[in-house]
Amino acid sequence: MATLGMSEKDKAAVEDFRRDVVDPSRNSLVIVDFWAEWCGPCKQLAPVIEKVCTDYAAKGVKLVKINVDDNGFIASQFRVQSIPAVYAVFQGQPVADLSQARTEGQLKQMLDQLLGQLPIQSEEKAQAQEIAPLIAMGEEMLAGGEYARALSIFEQIAAMAPDNVEVVGGVVRALVGLGRLDDAEALLADLPPEIGKEQPMERARAALTLARDARPVADLSAVEARLAADPDDHEARFELAGGLMANGDRDAAADALLEIVRRDRDWNEGAARTQLLTLFGAVGLEDPWVAAQRRRLSQILFA
Predict the structure, then answer these.
(1) Catalytic one among 30, 39, 172, 258?
(2) Residue of 14, 31, 32, 42 marked active site
């Protein structure tokens, strides 16, 4: 903003704007809220904006409130004709008009979209980059069945990032692997509802469900004999699948469950398909093995 020919008051306002908005916006997303003392809607919206911006501070979001009565020149530069007027500024330029957002959910949705598109620097991103290799190490330990080492790694990461859902999910799955099912269930029960619905938590919950149902079987010959005598004994095949899962043979378990679906998809109210989906969730929906098994399931269902 040029200051030539401006009053001293306007020049001071421009300098304040440069310090509070333009400079921080080089790396952060600055939310500019134009308001006034006499504006009732502004006062209604203020708590919503303030709460969301506080919640998103670690994501690189900063709130600046500008009183239009004291900063008419700044408001005119944004062509503010009515208030409340809310803009997102990045690298010195308005990038979005957020004035239509009136609820916490609407504002968060708009901010999430902007944060996904812009190269915002934030504490959250820096921390995510720092812990990503450690999470990968913990996942490697889980995949290899080294549950004690996995738990140690994830608990160390949790000390740095206690709210990271991947880390919490890793802790739960490590506890499940160690047979500490009650501890895993207690940890899941204590999670805030919004975190508990995220995919890593669904995966951890599925792993716990499988572990609760699992009954390791040293000798499956008896149930195999039942199947040999009657290939349509779905109860025996389902029992076999459970034993195979408990013994760590997910390929054979999936084969058994898929065979039940192929023979009678509605058996026991679709129990085989439900168990398959639980198994998929425990392994992780992004896993290539799950993708391959889902294709097999689709071929059976839509053949």
Answers:
(1) 39
(2) 42
Give catalytic status of residue 53 as yes or no.
Answer: no
**How far is it, in rounded angstroms, from Cα 25 to Cα 21?**
6
> What would the pLDDT profile of 65-97 be if each residue is shown by its tens digit?
999 999 989 998 889 889 999 999 999 999 999
Residue 126 structure tokens: 């820096």
Please report the pLDDT score of residue 3 as a whole number: 53
CB atoms closer than 10 angstroms to residue 133: 9
Contact criterion met (CB below 8 Å) for 85 and 34: yes
Assign residue 92 a region: left if phi > 0, alpha if psi is -120 to 50, beta otherwise? left
DSSP letters along 240-294, please? HHHHHHHTT-HHHHHHHHHHHHHH-TTGGGTHHHHHHHHHHHHH-TTSHHHHHHH
Residue 218 DSSP code: S
Find the helix packing angle between 165-177 and 147-160, rounded to 10°. Answer: 150
Residue 76 contacts by C-beta under 8 Å, 6 or more apart in sequence?
none
| 286 has a pLDDT exceeding 70 | yes
Q: Does the annotation mark 42 as catalytic?
A: yes
Residue 174 pLDDT level (bands cut at 50, 70, 90):
very high
Bridge partners, residue 41, by sequence: none
